[in-house]
């Protein structure tokens, strides 16, 4: 078998503060940006947002999924075509998150709240809005510089500002140190999140870049403050085999340390972490299983898009990434959600 290429699936740590407010009208988007003292600019982390955006643009251009907004967020980047392995990997992740989000919105019938931790230049809100999705709140959090750039791109794009129409008071983008639950609490209160309403928190390659203690505090705080909560997470696992060691080495060479991986190295640890933090139920599967759970017709469609001769690498890389989810809900409504 060939030596696998460097795992460049996704985004990394988010650890700075910035506050923004959502536009009152979509036609004239108004954002107030306030940088907080003592912030730390992390160039390698910021660069991973660009990498992820370019990779998503590559997959969209190749026809893996439809996204009318990714061009606006990649307009200032040097877009290059990614290998089929990367394109298909992004498809699996994007499709799985959308599948669960759609389940959540259908169950909550317009009352659902979504918090995207480490959102970067993600277009999920705009894609949901284009499909007339009904939701009460959608809040994004990320690094200050990433958020500032995102605001600039939104303000400069007619497609993005139009995408906010009809969702005034729903969408907002802020930055908060995810290691500081008091800051997160404050932002959620400022944006009128109801702790008794069904709320989905999502994170993609975020928790693994935080110290384990910080993740424990975050998950425990959510479970203790939100009576109907669901958490959906994507990140690396299995660091101790040869590929796992290479994965860690490659990311560290880019300035990104997997601080939380040792404390949550496998699927069982993923589930146990939620349960120890007060969640009622939890599950986790690797990305091979996630891909198998996607609709068969969609898998058949994307498998015809490009010549794909990297099946062994595909299986190996997918075994080192996972999706995990957990519910904390006395009504048991959110316990039915799953990948």
Mind explaining what this structure looks like?
This protein is α/β, with parallel strands linked by helices and 339 residues long. It contains 13 helices and nine strands. The protein has a seven-stranded mixed β-sheet, with helices on both faces. α4 links the parallel β3 and β4 (137-141). α1 (43-61) crosses α3.
What percentage of residues falls in helices of 4 or more residues?
A: 40-55%
- What is the tally of beta strands? 9
What is the 3D shape? globular
**Integer-rounded radius of gyration:** 19 Å
Please, how many helices? Answer: 13
Q: Beta-sheet strand percentage? A: 5-15%
Distance between the ends? 30 Å
Q: Report the average pLDDT across residues.
A: 88
What is shown here, in short?
With 339 residues, the chain is α/β, with parallel strands linked by helices. 42% of the residues lie in helices and 14% in strands.
Topology, please?
Layout lengths: L17 E2 L14 E2 L7 H19 L8 H4 L10 H25 L4 E5 L6 H7 L6 E5 L2 H12 L2 H6 L7 E4 L6 H10 L8 E6 L7 H14 L2 E9 L5 H12 L13 H10 L4 E6 H7 L2 H7 L8 H8 L2 E9 L10
Parallel strand pairs: 3-4, 3-6, 4-5, 6-7
Antiparallel strand pairs: 1-2, 7-9, 8-9
Keywords:
339 residues; 7-stranded mixed β-sheet; two-stranded antiparallel ribbon; 9 strands; globular
